[in-house]
Structure formats: C-alpha cells, structure tokens
C-alpha cells in the first residue's frame, strides 16, 4: 500500500484467453472445481464476477479501473487513489458508512 495507490499481486500468469486488456469481461477459471464449490455454497454469486464487480465499485466512488501489469510469473493490479485527502464513503452489506480517510501524498 502506498499513499496514492495499492498494488495487488497474484502469482502466475493470466489463464486461457484472458489478457490484461480483456480481463474485465473474459472469464476462465484456473481451478474450476474450487470455483464450482464456491458457487454451490453461495460464496460467490456467479462465475467470473470478481473483476467486473471490483471495477463497478471503483467507478461508483469515482476511481479509475485498475492498471494491470503482467510478466511470466506475476500479475499486478494497481489501483490509484485519485481522491487523496478526501472522505471516502464505504459501502457494506447493511448500509453506507462514512469513513474518514486522510492520505497525505508525498
């Protein structure tokens, strides 16, 4: 985590036909049995919803979609906080909760 962005790393390369430029709407499961278990027990609503859901949540608070970087061994998603120093409204399952966040950019 940094003052103006967060980097999320996932080991391995992108699976199947998924590329950094189509990751939001192209779905491919590396572990289909685990994905099926999670759906059957309602840990996820539908297959492949994660990236699109994340992008929708970022858009709702006025942030840009992640920027992806890939190499042979790692996928990085970088989410930039363009609202440094502003109050962020956090959405949870029950209500909207105001969270005061003060970030000082360096």
Q: How would you characterize this protein structure?
A:
This protein has 106 residues and is of the alpha+beta class. 19% of the residues lie in helices and 25% in strands. The strands form two sheets. The chain has a three-stranded antiparallel beta sheet, with no helix packed on it. It has a two-stranded antiparallel ribbon with strand order 4-5. Strand 4 and strand 5 form a beta hairpin.
List keywords for this structure.
5 strands; disordered C terminus; 106 residues; alpha+beta; single chain; three-stranded antiparallel sheet; globular; two-stranded antiparallel ribbon
How are the SSEs ordered, and which strands pair?
Elements: E1 5-11, H1 32-40, H2 50-60, E2 67-70, E3 74-80, E4 88-91, E5 96-99
Antiparallel strand pairs: 1-3, 2-3, 4-5
Concise description?
By secondary structure, the protein is an alpha+beta fold. It has two helices and five strands. The longest helix has 11 residues, at 50-60.
Q: Helix segment count?
A: 2
Overall form: globular
* Secondary-structure-derived class: alpha+beta
Spatial order of the strands forming the largest sheet: 1-3-2
| Helix residue percentage | 10-25%
Order of helices and strands: EHHEEEE
Total beta strand runs:
5
Distance between the termini: 13 Å
Spans of at least 5 consecutive residues with low confidence: 98-106
Quote the beta fraction.
Answer: 15-25%
Q: Mind describing the biggest β-sheet?
A: 3 strands, antiparallel
Mean pLDDT: 79
**Rg calc:** 16 Å
């Amino acid at each position: 985590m940094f003052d103006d962005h967060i980097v999320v790393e996932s080991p391995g390369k992108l699976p199947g036909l998924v590329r950094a430029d189509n990751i939001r709407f192209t779905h491919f499961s590396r572990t289909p049995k685990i994905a099926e278990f999670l759906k059957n027990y309602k840990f996820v609503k539908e297959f492949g919803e994660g990236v699109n859901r994340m992008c929708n949540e970022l858009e709702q608070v006025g942030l840009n979609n992640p920027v992806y970087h890939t190499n042979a061994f790692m996928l990085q998603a970088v989410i930039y906080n363009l609202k440094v120093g502003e109050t962020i409204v956090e959405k949870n399952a029950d209500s909207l909760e105001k969270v005061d966040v003060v970030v000082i950019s360096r």
